Amino acid sequence: MSSEPYDVVVAGAGTAGMLTAALVAGRGHRVLLLERDPCPGVLPGGVVRQRSTAVNVVIEGERVAGLRHLPEGAPARTARARCVVDASGGDSLLRRHVAGARGSSGLAVYACFRADTGRAEGPRRFPFGNGWFWTAPAGDGLTQVGAVVRPDLADRVRADPEGALSGFAEACPPVRDLLTGAARAAGGPGRVRVRPHWSYTDHRLWRRGMLLVGDAACAVGAQSLPSLGTHLACRGAGLAARALDGFLRGTADEAEAFAEFERRYREAYDSVLRDGILPDECLPHGGTFPPPGLSAGAARAGVSR
Ligand SMILES: Cc1cc2nc3c(=O)[nH]c(=O)nc-3n(C[C@H](O)[C@H](O)[C@H](O)COP(=O)(O)OP(=O)(O)OC[C@H]3O[C@@H](n4cnc5c(N)ncnc54)[C@H](O)[C@@H]3O)c2cc1C
Questions:
Q1: Where in 12-122 does DSSP place strands (E)?
Q2: What pLDDT does 45 receive?
C-alpha cells in the first residue's frame, strides 16, 4: 500500500469536483483529483488521476484522513490528505461517511426523444397518477422526457426502465401524445436512465476532514429552471474552496470554517428552490405539487427525510 501526502483529495471530476480542485490548487495547496472515467488530465497546480475510482475513505479517530482508490488495472492505493472532498455526484458511495443514509424523495426515469413539440418550449411539467413528468428541450432537435415517481416504484423502474417509462407515458395523456410516433434519440442521449434522489439536501455537509460538494451534497429537481444544477455545484465549489483555504492556512478553525461552508451552501440551495422553481401557475394542467405519495415538506424543501 502506497501513501501520498496531499492537502486535499477530491473524488469526481464533474462540475463540482473540477472547480473545487482548480480553486484550491490555485490557492497554492497540493491537490489530487480522482476521476473514475476518462477526463481532461490537466489541473494547473494539481495532480489528476483519471480512470481511478474512489472506493472508501480512510478514517483515523474522528477524522477522515484520506481516500482509498482503485486505478484501472492496478492495485488499490491510499491517498492521504488533510481533507477529502466528495464530489462524486448524486450516486456517491462516499457521502454516507458524512451524512448517513439518505432516503429518496423520488426516482427519475428519463431519456431524450426526437419528438416534435410543435414549437420551441421551455421546461414543462405534467402530473399523473404516479408522480409527474417533465419535458424540456435538449438541443439538436431533441426533447428530454422524464418521470419523477414515488420511491416505492423503484424496483419496477430498475427492473425495466424502458418499460416503466413507456408505461408511465401511457398514463399521462399530454406525454403520451407527445411521444406518439416519436423515436428515442440515437446513442447515449436515447438511453433510458434512472436517477434516485431528484431533489434533496443531505442533513450534514461536512465532518472533520471531509466536505460534500455538488450533487453529492444537494441537487435541485427537474422542475427547476435550466442551469441551476450547475450553478449550485459551482457555488458549492467556491464555498468549499474558501473554507478549505482558511483551514489549510490555519487562519480559520476547521469546524467554524466548515460550518460556515454548510450554512452558506444551504442558503444557496434554499434560494434556488425558492426562486428557481417554475411556479405552478406557469405549468400546464394546473398541476398539483407535490405529486401524490411525496410529502409536501420533502418535495418542496427538497429534504429527503
Ligand atoms: C438528466 C439530467 C439533466 C440535467 N440537466 C441540467 C441542466 O439542464 N442544467 C443544469 O444546470 N443542471 C442539470 N443537471 C444537473 C447537473 O448535471 C448537476 O447538478 C451538476 O453537474 C453537478 O455536478 P457534480 O459535479 O456534482 O456531479 P456529476 O456531474 O455527476 O459529476 C460526478 C463525477 O464524479 C465521477 N465519479 C463518480 N463516482 C466516482 C468515484 N467513486 N470515484 C471517482 N470518480 C467518481 C463521475 O464519473 C463524474 O465525472 C442535470 C442532471 C441530470 C441527471
A1: 31-35, 46-50, 52-60, 63-71, 77-86, 107-114
A2: 87
| 286 part of a folded domain | no
* Average pLDDT by stretches of 10, the chain with 305 residues: 76 96 97 93 90 97 96 96 95 87 71 74 79 83 87 88 96 93 90 74 87 89 65 94 98 98 90 60 34 32 28
Domain that holds residue 146: 107-194
Specify the number of domains making up the chain.
Answer: 2
**Residue bearing cell 448524486:** 90
Task: State the CATH number of the domain containing residue 147.
Answer: 3.30.9.100
| Judgement on whether residues 11 and 96 belong to the same structural domain of the protein | yes
Q: pTM for this one?
A: 0.72
Whether ligand 1 lies within 6 angstroms of the CB of 13 is answered as: yes
Q: For ligand 1, is residue 3 a contact (CB within 6 Å)?
A: no
From the alpha carbon of 136, which atom of ligand 1 is closest? 8
Find the 200 Cα to ligand 1 centroid distance in Å: 14
How many angstroms does the Cα of residue 109 sit away from the middle of ligand 1? 16
Distance linking the first and last C-alpha atoms of the chain: 39
**Does residue 302 belong to any structural domain of this protein?**
no
